[in-house]
Amino acid sequence: MPNIFNQIKHQRKIHKENFQATKYDHILNSESEESFTMILNTDGAVTKNKHVSLWPITFMINEIPFPNQRYSESIILGDVLPTSNHSTNKLFRIILDMIYQECPCALTKLKYYSFGQSILFDSLHTLYLGVFKTFCSLIFSKFKTNRQQKWSLYNKISSIDQGLSSVKIPTTTSRRFRTIKHIVRFKANEFRSLIHHGSTVVLQAMLPKYRQHFALLLAVVNITSKDNIIDNCDIILVKELLHQYVKDWQNIFGLRHMSSNIHSLLHIHKSIQYLGPLYMYSTFNFEGIGHDLVCMIHGMTHYGPQLISNLQYYRQATIDAFKRNYPGKLLYFNESILSRKLLSK
User: Fold this and answer.
1) Each residue of 300-328: pLDDT tens digit?
2) In this predicted structure, what is the pLDDT of residue 248?
3) CA angle at residue 180 from 214 to 279, to 5 degrees?
4) How far apart are CA 226 and CA 69, in angstroms?
5) What are the helix (H) ranges across the chain?
6) pLDDT at 195 over 80
7) Distance (Å, whole) CA 335 – CA 341
8) Which of 113, 91, 95, 102 is nearest to 40 (CA)?
């Protein structure tokens, strides 16, 4: 990408101004202006062969501006690990035990890596597909024991659907609201859209006691999602709001529903204190990478050479697209196919 170094330096200055209360700001100030930082992520990618799963290890440069930062041409692919099938928790435990016994973690050699601080809160799986999905599954549950609770909104689903249908959502949001009757089938993007754009409709349907409880979570989501200054007041407020939210959760829904995701909310303030707002390190940013890799493979017999060959083609195509003599109309067409905003040449 052209002028990428200038973009990184400019974004670096913006981050230093906005995130002065974070460890990230300390790192930027401690290193030269030519340096940059990265986030490491690994996840499983579904392939066309049900017996094979590919696990890409990817790096994202924090100082590349959004949305370019999450595009494939900006992602560094460190490795792709194949497994015979989708890995289970038992297999992960065996591997982790072997690593612990046999060798020290290579990440500990990094200057700013910390086992506690550097493993950050993931809004996709822990917040939207974790806490909020559990919350919705309870209040909209059709089971009799849940319908009889005062916090249940099962009998108000029709009116909530009607209210959601009148909500105007941003054009940048890819999914509109489906009926709440299908809440258990919602994707992460749908839960995110519901909490950001449809929460007022849900709040209005609640009794005051439960409305106040849900409002605690909404306040935290708004604070931790903003793209401007994160300061010490924000960090302290998030910590206090979530401490109260988790405490009230147990009183409202019972110890049975106090899952690890609910407990993880108590650590959000540590993540924003380390690296700023949740969008900076959300795994939403990596969701398209696995799909891109799968599209580069036709048959699983020789997936390695196929990946290498297609990644080389992709890299060269990216370089060619930003040459001065590359047709502007063709660039626009390419970006429209990828459903992106047009990148400046």
Assistant:
1) 677 778 888 888 888 888 888 878 888 88
2) 97
3) 55
4) 17
5) 4-18, 23-30, 89-102, 133-139, 144-147, 157-165, 188-197, 199-205, 208-225, 232-253, 260-264, 268-275, 287-295, 303-321, 328-337
6) yes
7) 7
8) 113
Q: Helix, strand, coil proportions of the chain in percent (round to 5)?
A: 60, 5, 35
- Report which of residues 50 and 222 the model is more confident about: 222
* Identity at 24, one-letter amino acid code: Y
Size of the chain in residues: 345
The SS3 of residue 79 is: strand
Nearest to 76 by CA among 59, 56, 62, 64: 59
Tokens of 146: 């849940």
Q: What is the pLDDT of residue 345?
A: 41
pLDDT at 27: 94
The pTM (predicted TM-score) of the whole model is 0.86
State both tokens at 103: 């060798």
